[in-house]
Amino acid sequence: MNNAPTKGYEEDVGKRTTIRVVSHTSVPLLLKNPEYFFKETNSTVYVIWGPFRNMRKDGNGIVYNMLKKTVDSYPTAKIYVTTEKRMSYCDAVFKKETGKDR
């Protein structure tokens, strides 16, 4: 999850990273080491989630803009972002299961 290491933790997390779920707040941490996350381990699928204000695609989404530049630099990277509708659904499930707003 996020930018947590997997090397040295294989006993806990397995020997490969197929899917990495990343919070919008951790995207800058991934981008500190893009060669590792997006070139060496290019078989990993990244699912990025975050609030609409950061993920909007109209040029005003700070995190979305960072990801767009990353995809331009690493075209084989498999980076996907959640939709606003999916985020609303996840927020509702979180609240139902925990009784708390995210």
Report on this structure.
- With 102 residues, the protein is an alpha/beta fold.
- The protein has one domain.
- The protein is built from six helices and three strands.
- It has a three-stranded parallel beta sheet, with helices on one face.
- It is flat.
Shape: flat
Main pleated sheet: 3 strands, parallel
Q: Would you tell me the overall average pLDDT?
A: 88
Query: Cα-atom Rg, whole angstroms?
Result: 15 Å
Total strands: 3
- Read across the widest sheet, the strand sequence of neighbours is 1-2-3
Strand content: 5-15%
Q: Count the DSSP helices.
A: 6
Helix proportion of residues, in percent? 40-55%
Structural class: alpha/beta
Number of domains: 1
The SSE string, one letter per element, is HEHHEHHEH
Instruction: Point out poorly predicted stretches.
Output: none
Rounded to the nearest angstrom, the distance between the terminal CA atoms is 18 Å
Keywords:
alpha/beta, glycosyltransferase, 3-stranded parallel sheet, 14% strand, Glyco_trans_29, membrane, alpha-N-acetylgalactosaminide alpha-2,6-sialyltransferase activity, Alpha-N-acetylgalactosaminide alpha-2,6-sialyltransferase 3
Summarize the structure.
Helices cover 45% and strands 14% of the residues. It is an alpha/beta fold and 102 residues long.
SSE topology sketch:
Blueprint (H helix, E strand, L loop, with lengths): L9 H4 L5 E5 L3 H4 L3 H7 L4 E5 L2 H4 L6 H12 L4 E4 L2 H15 L4
Parallel strand pairs: 1-2, 2-3
Keywords: Disulfide bond, Glycoprotein, Glycosyltransferase, Golgi apparatus, Lipid metabolism, Membrane, Sialic acid, Signal-anchor, Transferase, Transmembrane, Transmembrane helix
Family: Belongs to the glycosyltransferase 29 family.
InterPro entries: Glyco_trans_29, GT29-like_sf
